[in-house]
Amino acid sequence: MASQANNEEFPNQALVPYEHVTETVTLEQIRNSSSRAIDQGEATLQLLSIGGQELAPWCHNALQRAVLELLGRWVIIVRGSLRARQIASMRDSYVNALLIASRGGAVPRPCRACRQQALLYPDGYSRPFPVCTKLRGHFGGSCASCKFRDHAARCTVRDGGPEDPGELRFEPILPALPAPEEAPYEGAN
Fold first, then answer.
1. At a CB cut-off of 8 Å and minimum separation 6, what does 84 contact?
2. Among 7, 56, 59, 82, which one is least packed by beta carbons within 10 Å?
3. In the chain, where are the structural domains located?
């Protein structure tokens, strides 16, 4: 989990509260949406459901398939930062970035590119992933956002990089949901 100093310096890089996540989407929904960004004003965060085997059709090599077998989780993205044409193309850097984001751990201090990206937007979120996440030992250890942009070699938190945080624990980026008896949902038995 991010330190208190990190939370003060980079408030939107810490845990993202559920109330900031406005909807859950799938890769199919993004692929079928308009290719225009819906990123006006304050960012809307979405929860992308790729924690299971949803990326399997686009994993074409042994490394991607091995990472896909790791424990995964849904990923927070900034609405409009993943475009329909990107999902349709599913080039390796996009697939690898989604694998890193869904299987990696949040770094205590975001990489230089994520810090600079966050400064570009009034909401303070880097794109496409608001949390700088890396998967040590895979894809050079770059963060998901750098890998997405195909800038893995420039990522400062990459394995052996100048800001490499070392070993990270796999922790949920979102806090756990309340138990079903505390928060019943529609359609519960």
1. 30, 31, 32, 33, 34, 35
2. 56
3. 11-154
